[in-house]
Design goal:
This is IPT/TIG domain-containing protein. This protein is mostly beta strands. It contains no helices and 13 strands. 0% of the residues lie in helices and 49% in strands.
Length: 152
């Protein structure tokens, strides 16, 4: 796969393994960089030889996961949730169906644990029914789901 590099007039060559590689042009205060992201991790090269700074950003393309201490119960039930694969230090928002039920901050490894959330009682009228509890990272936009069976 070849693409024309508009900033330097050169040619950008990327070897694609399956469909997991992405090439992106980044313009920063200190120069223009080509960022290559693949299943082998990110590599960054300056677009022109006039720049001496090489940025190697951390790009995590792995999935996020969400774990519940219980997977069923009535409205008003307290659930403890843990997760991983989120951005380091980012805010994670929790929703049960469409209702926001809490937030937390991921640690430096993109993990959190034992966050207490309460299942909304307002949805008890729809029981028995399975809903999803979701966790979404504010910076990474990673989303993880876990099913929860509302029993009453």
């Amino acid at each position: 796969m070849a693409a024309k590099d508009g900033e330097s007039g050169g040619t950008l060559m990327t070897v694609v393994k399956a469909v997991t590689a992405i090439a992106v042009m980044i313009t920063a205060v200190f120069g223009v960089f080509k960022l290559f992201v693949s299943d082998e991790g990110p590599v960054s090269h300056p677009a022109s030889s006039s720049s001496s700074t090489i940025a190697t950003p951390h790009v995590d393309i792995g999935p996020a996961s969400l774990f519940l201490n219980r997977d069923s119960g009535p409205g008003g039930t307290t659930v403890k949730v843990s997760g991983e694969g989120f951005g380091p230090g980012e805010r994670v928002t929790f929703r049960f169906h469409v209702d926001q039920v809490g937030t937390t901050k991921a640690n430096a490894e993109g993990k959190f644990s034992n966050v207490s959330l309460t299942i909304p009682s307002t949805l008890s009228a729809f029981a028995p029914q399975q809903f999803n509890l979701s966790a979404t990272g504010s910076a990474s936009l990673k989303n993880a789901l876990a099913p929860f069976q509302l029993t009453g």
